[in-house]
């Protein structure tokens, strides 16, 4: 299988703390790579470093489709199709829902006007975000709809790699079903997905492969069934 993303020796130091410590791994085109690990193990920081939102690495390299991207701006990286979401609902709170999508489209793809509105409608429909919520203020929406809006915003930017940071956190069971179905459906269309989840069941059912992190390092990788039986993984979780 062709490698779409290659991470090599990626490191981020905050003073003495190495939040991500010399991480190396590859992502195959078309896979769903699940990323697990206790709180504070460096999962979100890893997405920060790849997307450069809001900051890049202290050292190390990231290649996307064979091109080094770690020296590019966050916008340039997004424009290439490497798109992330955030653990918190990173919506522009005072804006309407649709304006959240339109701002992202203008920033990333330089698309505005009718074409942007068409892409926003298309993405909302794709992820099941109700069109009649488009003109509501983003901050006034329940968490589930903010999660849907964040997914629609990401999908509108035409990701080749979609990096989802805990899309199921603080959702109830039937809402988690939406996360699972949406990820599976986007992946079936050819989107490569990196999925961070702190809780294991969703990760185990959708991931084609998993990485488990602890203290900024990879402690296990492989098929979900294998890694979750790994003694280091069990200890990392029980010890957290
Ligand atoms: P996870 O997403 O796995 O819960 P994070 O990547 O958010 O973990 O954090 C990894 C470690 O880096 C934690 O110890 C956290 O406190 C620290 N960290 C994250 N972001 C910053 C920052 N901007 N400044 C200082 N320390 C940070
Ligand atoms: Mg996190």
Automatic annotation (TrEMBL):
Keywords: ATP-binding, Nucleotide-binding, Transport. SUPFAM superfamilies: P-loop containing nucleoside triphosphate hydrolases. It comes from the Bacteria. InterPro entries: AAA+_ATPase (IPR003593), ABC_AA/LPS_Transport (IPR051120), ABC_transporter-like_ATP-bd (IPR003439), BCA_ABC_TP_C (IPR032823), P-loop_NTPase (IPR027417). GO terms for molecular function: ATP binding. Residues 5-240 form the ABC transporter domain. This is ABC transporter ATP-binding protein.
